[in-house]
Model the fold of this input.
Amino acid sequence: MTQSYDVIVVGAGPAGATLAYELAKKGIRVLLLEKEKLPRYKCCAGGVTTRATRLLDFDISEAVEDIVYEVSMSYNFGNPYTGHHNQPLIYTVMRDVFDYLLVKRAQQFGAVLIDGQQVTQIQTNADWVEIATADSLFHSRVVAGADGAYSIVAKESGIRRGIKYIAALESEVIVPEEDLTKWKSRVAIDLGCIPGGYAWVFPKRNHLSIGAGCLASKAKDLNRRYQEFLRSLGISNYTIARTGSHLIPICGKRATVSQGKTLLLGDAAGLADPLTGEGICHAIQSAQLAAPVIENSLLQDKIELQDYQQLVDEKIMSELGIARTLSRILVRFPHLVFKMLRPDGRAWRGYCSLMRGEVNYATIKERTGGFKGIFTLLSRM
Ligand SMILES: Cc1cc2nc3c(=O)[nH]c(=O)nc-3n(C[C@H](O)[C@H](O)[C@H](O)COP(=O)(O)OP(=O)(O)OC[C@H]3O[C@@H](n4cnc5c(N)ncnc54)[C@H](O)[C@@H]3O)c2cc1C
Done:
């Protein structure tokens, strides 16, 4: 028998879980369809910026592994400098725990979850959307694609075009207690060791998440460079508990995120930050922009989702446009960006304010005198 809902959300990552939560809060009948059995592991550094946590109207402490106050920045395995901030910059999480926390929150407000069901086909008719999994059929008035980098909703609807990718590797590394203590509350970033990207260490409660990512077009040597980075950390004795790789989609200038009865959120829409690879914040934000548009549409009994496109253009695409230019600067001049981010400089303070959601890229650009101002600063390095 076909099951019917007002909205079906495909994918129960941060984007899908947040949308299900926001809609369920409004009393909308929402189904969350997830291909994996939850909680599921996701290959990710698990850095949730303070900016992202500020979007949520509930506490995530039960999922927090560590709170980051310090960032050690190095260039091409050289000596790092460490910047300290007196307030939290990033909360680290394991994605199985964090994402499931968001899903459980949605369920508490009445969202229905069916996990272990991979969506295989989507067809849109005049009155509804038909969504098929291997053994079930569902109907809804709106479908939201929150199904990540390899989104079937994006493919089936033909919406997503002009996407580029960041290729990223990540290992969960078990280290001796003294190394864990050394890395507590501190993220490390090396610029320059990965052409077209960077490598990182993110501290977790009982291990370190160590990874590297770069533009997929420059990823030929990513694995070898990553191994070099791992060795350069000087950790005496470690075991790799888990390792994986994944793509992070990055949308282009005029990306389409809604069409007819379909909308795309988070990675499915390519909304990750091209400079940092951070995707959780915009996954959550896009869901929060979508929810009231869907609600209005259902209330008026006329499915029109163009307002979502406008909101995403205004609040997210404008930021991604600036981040795209900054990422080009990072790819070409990593040594200058490294120098610019010294902990005693303006750029470091700007970076901290950005992580904390106190400013956005537009404010930073304006305060620096536009890209011209940024180039002037770089040329003085
Ligand atoms: C190595 C690495 C490190 C990263 N580190 C960070 C970081 O520190 N901080 C940060 O903010 N971002 C980070 N990111 C990016 C971040 O992981 C993504 O941007 C984020 O997960 C996007 O959330 P989402 O909800 O859009 O998609 P996802 O989290 O990918 O969720 C999509 C969900 O859809 C499900 N799904 C897929 N296909 C189907 C289908 N056909 N049917 C049903 N369900 C389906 C998937 O199983 C998944 O659960 C990293 C990415 C990588 C690869």
